[in-house]
Amino acid sequence: MTATYLAKVWQEKWQSSGFSAPSLIQERVYPLLKSGQSVVGVSPTGSGKTLAYLLPLLETVKVGEGNQLLILTSSQELAMQVTQVARDWAQLLDLQVLPLIGGANTKRQIEKLKAKPEVLVGTPGRVLELIKLKKVKTQQIHGVVLDEVDQLLKEGAFGLASKILTLIPKQATRSFFSATANEILKEIQELAFETPQVIDVTEEDQSKGVIHHYYLNYPSRKLVDALRRLAYLPDFQGLIFFNELSALGNAEEKLLFHGLPVASLASDQNKLTRRASLDGFRQGKICELLTTDVAARGLDVDQLGYVVNTEVPQEKESYLHRAGRVGRMGNEGTVITIVQDHTLKDLKKIAAQLDLTLQEVFLHGGALHTERPEVKSEPKKEQSVQKNSRKTSEKLHTMPKKTKKKQKNQKDKGKRRH
Length: 418
Fold this sequence. Notes:
The protein is globular and about 75 Å long. Strands 3-4-2-5-6-1-7 form a 7-stranded parallel sheet, sandwiched between helices. A 7-stranded parallel sheet has the order 10-11-9-12-13-8-14, sandwiched between helices. It is built from 16 helices and 16 strands. The protein has 418 residues and is an alpha/beta fold. GO terms for molecular function: ATP binding; hydrolase activity; RNA helicase activity; RNA strand annealing activity.
């Protein structure tokens, strides 16, 4: 596929967008989707999967004939990102694109559905709700895409996605895209009424830039200190991933106390808060965006330099998708995982499974070093040390009970205040 394969109204946009040749996944799936075949598209993160399915499928949609193309995504953020990309190209064909995501006003979405938009992009929960209310006309849909399909088919989301697919006409094409879709082909087969053609370009694709994978051995109790010091690195901007929401909230509170320009993106936030955090990060107003795996799928931040794992991810797929936020479309990126001695083995296991080269990095003097910096220590004054040692020993053995009790009361008081 070259630009000449596209609709004529798109050829100028293709060139003005800075694209030269299509990526491998775009080239391979284009003729299949254009001709109405179902596809499983597998390619590395950042290799252009969104345009790979959007461009050929938008060309099969007819103006003014109601809901025809449905795209299901694994998160609200990904849905809004896909919506924006789809609108950029669909408007040149006079097609309407409507996002249907949870957290947004349902009545407003129902009102906009009356305009019969041809393309719908949404999260499974809200889409299924609107189908049951008969506001989405499923009988007209002739194409469905599951973006980040492995996430959509996880426990909890699987029932919603599979239910939606049973309500779509059998003759509609069903396509599935993800960087790790090849690991769930059996589950995908259960959702497809016909056997989709698997297009896996993982081994051949060369679109990914150089990504450096580092680990930083740092005490877990000093995690916030590590994040604070990283934030002061020159030109640092990074997605900071947490495994648990509680740890994220605690770190955000402390970093804000230090006056750092940070924000959070979490599943328990409302739509407006999440959008404000993401917009501020994309505009460069925020140096650290604290998040969970909600931001690990498909999220595209232009020329993002860093991804930081505050602890070892629980699954290799999680590490892979988090790392995929950097090194997109040929750009260079850095992934830093904060470990302790007992968790380093878990990270090395993931690295071996993903065939990654790990290197230790050190945070010293406002910079990252790949070699352990030499820390110069001043000569100790023997007499002074001995004198202080005697004083310390005396304090340890002769501390009055009253003082201990006072300290305990102060400690308890601090707990109550917290």
